[in-house]
């Protein structure tokens, strides 16, 4: 019983965080960050990647869609709580082509988070010195306006914001 007593008294206390702990430090914004829309994965072989998710893992997988204005082919893998976006280069100037030159086997390219007001988000993020990779939103794979935030301003992650 002496060991148990020592363990109980020397065990570190764990502080739990309530949802109020997070919201107290968040400044009010004119726009609201929403749910995770998708995680994008650059793939060197789109057919093999589609087959992995559809035939091996049993996921619902979309048809391939070309997005020439973004220089990519996209395929969406439906998950219960979000989607995966498989990206493959479309054209030699594709940002995915340069990504795959550095990452031969592919890998996570970006995350996409929904926002309720993309224009307000752009204005406020610029004021906060977050670089946006385009002057105006472009229409993304879901037919909605999107912007990308510079990864150096987002701890190494390319962040896409999509109008909800």
TrEMBL record:
Domain VOC: 35-164
Enzyme Commission number(s): 5.1.99.1
Gene Ontology molecular function, alphabetical: metal ion binding; methylmalonyl-CoA epimerase activity
UniProt record, GO biological process: L-methylmalonyl-CoA metabolic process
Keywords: Cobalt, Isomerase, Metal-binding
Gene3D superfamilies: 2,3-Dihydroxybiphenyl 1,2-Dioxygenase, domain 1
Superkingdom in the source lineage: Eukaryota
Gene Ontology cellular component list: mitochondrion
Catalysis: reaction(s): (R)-methylmalonyl-CoA = (S)-methylmalonyl-CoA
Family membership: Belongs to the methylmalonyl-CoA epimerase family.
NCBIfam families per UniProt: metmalonyl_epim
The protein's role, per its UniProt record: Methylmalonyl-CoA epimerase involved in propionyl-CoA metabolism.
Protein name: Methylmalonyl-CoA epimerase, mitochondrial
Taxonomic lineage from the root: Eukaryota, Metazoa, Chordata, Craniata, Vertebrata
Gene designation: Mcee
């Amino acid at each position: 019983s002496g060991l148990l007593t020592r363990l109980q008294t020397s065990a570190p206390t764990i502080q739990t965080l309530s949802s109020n702990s997070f919201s107290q430090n968040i400044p009010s914004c004119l726009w609201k960050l929403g749910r995770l829309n998708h995680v994008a994965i650059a793939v060197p072989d789109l057919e093999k990647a589609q087959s992995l998710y559809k035939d091996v893992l049993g996921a619902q997988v979309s048809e391939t869609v070309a997005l020439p204005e973004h220089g990519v082919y996209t395929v969406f893998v439906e998950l219960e709580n979000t989607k995966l976006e498989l990206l493959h280069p479309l054209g030699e100037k594709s940002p995915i082509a340069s990504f795959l030159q550095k990452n031969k086997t592919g890998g996570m390219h970006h995350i996409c988070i929904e926002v309720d007001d993309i224009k307000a988000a752009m204005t406020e993020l610029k004021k906060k010195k977050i670089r946006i990779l385009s002057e105006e939103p472009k229409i993304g794979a879901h037919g909605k306006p999107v912007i990308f935030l510079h990864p150096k301003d987002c701890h190494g992650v390319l962040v896409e914001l999509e109008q909800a």
